[in-house]
Design brief:
Mean pLDDT: 79
Strand order of the largest sheet: 2-5-10-7
Organism: Elysia marginata
Protein name: Secreted protein
Pfam families: DUF3011 (PF11218)
InterPro entries: DUF3011
Number of strands: 10
Helix content: under 10%
Oligomer: single chain
Radius of gyration: 17 Å
Low-confidence stretches: 1-8, 124-129
Length: about 130
């Protein structure tokens, strides 16, 4: 799988396919997973990606002894995306079960400890190829 790191992405559009016809399928052989774009299984071509210029923060948040813990983001971060980067604990970190996110922080419980990537908007939206 080929990865391209972008802060906040949406609406991938294929402009032209250079792989055998029908190889590329949105959401199957190309698309986005959190803040990363991917192509896979022989898909290649020219894509147009709409994204918001910005920066990313890495936030590690840990639930001590299973207690509820909230980790706030930098106040200057206009949050656009949050993705689980790595589970550090032996306990699973599952969204909606042992962690949840808001525009101002991440809440963990049930002994979840994980590192998250937070995409922050810094300036206006741009469209690039």
């Amino acid at each position: 799988m080929t990865k391209l790191c972008i802060d906040t992405v949406s609406d991938p559009q294929m402009k032209s396919e250079s792989s055998p016809s029908g190889t590329c399928k949105a959401g199957v052989t190309y698309g986005f997973l959190g803040p990363e774009a991917y192509v896979d299984l022989g898909c290649s071509g020219e894509f147009e990606i709409c994204y918001v210029e910005g920066r990313t923060e890495t936030v590690t948040c840990a639930s001590e002894d299973g207690d509820l813990t909230t980790c706030d983001f930098d106040g200057s971060c206009d949050v656009r995306s949050i993705a689980l980067l790595e589970t550090v604990s032996n306990e699973p970190c599952i969204e909606g079960f042992s962690f949840s996110t808001t525009s101002s922080g991440i809440t963990v419980t049930k002994s979840c400890e994980a590192t998250f990537t937070v995409g922050c908007r810094v300036c206006g939206a741009y469209k690039k190829k």
